[in-house]
Amino acid sequence: DGGITQSPKYLFRKEGQNVTLSCEQNLNHDAMYWYRQDPGQGLRLIYYSQIVNDFQKGDIAEGYSVSREKKESFPLTVTSAQKNPTAFYLCASKMESSYNEQFFGPGTRLTVL
Amino acid sequence: AQKVTQAQTEISVVEKEDVTLDCVYETRDTTYYLFWYKQPPSGELVFLIRRNSFDEQNEISGRYSWNFQKSTSSFNFTITASQVVDSAVYFCALSEPLVETNAGKSTFGDGTTLTVKP
Fold this sequence. Notes:
Chain A is mostly beta strands.
């Protein structure tokens, strides 16, 4: 079955540590996105990528980094520079067209201890 | 800059009632795309409906219908005869036209939490 997988589902990290969230898709989609969701709030865009080896900052990129070495993979690293990293992180992808909807992964809930 | 406003933070209805979720958007683009997504308690967003800025025809799909009015920049979503399984957070989203490397990214509203009671 085609879809997006994110791992792990729950992640705990100590303050000051970097952590990488995985996102893989087998939908052959060109564009991929990372969002952050805080309780009672909408989705805020962290980074996005339209093609391999290219990505752009979203609205809240500070303290995060990404890579896009393969079309199907778009990992997100939450660095120690992110002041308030505890949140729900969603990865999404879509075919290259504004008309197409985004497909979302199941999300990773990150908690900083 | 694009903006999406969902003024209703929470809505509670009794099963079989009809419910309308409001969405108001702002954009300077003449071409744009509007979406509604559903986020059940599991967390994964699911696409429901879309509309492009050139098509103001309102439609019905099963228990879902939507009302797109460019004159008021609104894209409201109605669930007819609501069911308990409709309980979720609903997001309205506005997508930019695809240019260069913007990946046709979307702006989301803050969501409306719908609770359908039996």
